[in-house]
Amino acid sequence: MSAELEARLRRVEDRQELAELVLLYFHVMDERELDALPRIFTADAHLGSGDGVFDATGLAAITDTYQGRFDALGATFHYSHGLIVEFDDADSDVASGTLTGHAEVVRNGTPMIVGLRYRDRYRRTPDGWRIADRIMSYFYYTPADRYVDVMPSDDRNLAYGDARPADWPSVLTGGDLSWLRSLAAR
Asked: How much is the pTM?
């Protein structure tokens, strides 16, 4: 097999492994299988959120963050709408990704729906691809019965009991779109 064909095949395999990794994350979250986090994150990973609520570095801190989150959550169901991956041309063991999805959750006894976006950095380890950095953001996080009323508002994040601005679309919040321009220019 030629070196070019071998490199192309490896990229296809890498994309498939990353797609499975982000889906595994959803299953781990829904089943609260915190012991599986080393299969998802690097040992030195960072977990953050667009609204600044999450900011944890290292597996122990990430585990504690998720445990605290689970303490407020009942049943959850996360599902993916797709992953866009961009590989680092200088380092074949590094990639970035944007994952969109939704979640149905019960938070503090209230059924809620969530529009999610994850901005990730991935790193290949000896055990396979892992998330090295994840920033979660919310298009909305609202009680299911308030969806129609909340959607026209800019304050669509009701996860914490008060109305907070949604993290995106960036065009409405003045956010940085360089990440999207980079993907669109490929």
From this structure: 0.89
d(CA 105, CA 55): 21
Q: List the Cα angle 157/135/14 in 5-degree steps.
A: 135
Q: Rounded to an integer, what distance in angstroms lies between the CA atom of residue 127 and that of residue 42?
A: 10
Helix (H/G/I), strand (E/B), else coil: 109:
coil
Q: How far apart are the first and last CA of the chain?
A: 27
Q: Are 110 and 143 in contact (CB under 8 A)?
A: yes
List b or e across 166-184, with b for residues whose CB sees 16 or more CB atoms inside 10 angstroms. Answer: bbbeeeeeeeeeeeeeeee
Residues 38-43: contacts with CB under 8 Å, at least 24 apart: 39/127, 39/130, 40/130, 40/131, 41/130, 41/131, 41/132, 41/134, 42/123, 42/125, 42/130, 42/131, 42/132
Supply angle C-alpha 9, 12, 18, rounded to 5.
140
Task: Read off the pLDDT of residues 121-155 as tens digits, 9 standing for 90 and up.
Answer: 999 999 999 999 999 999 999 999 999 999 999 99
DSSP annotation of 68? H
Q: How far apart are CA 186 and CA 101, in angstroms?
A: 23
Q: What is the DSSP string of 143-154?
A: EGGGHHHHTTSS
The tokens of 129 are what? 């691809």
* pLDDT digit string, tens, across residues 40-78: 999 999 999 988 888 999 999 999 999 998 988 989 999
Token pair belonging to 12: 């296809």
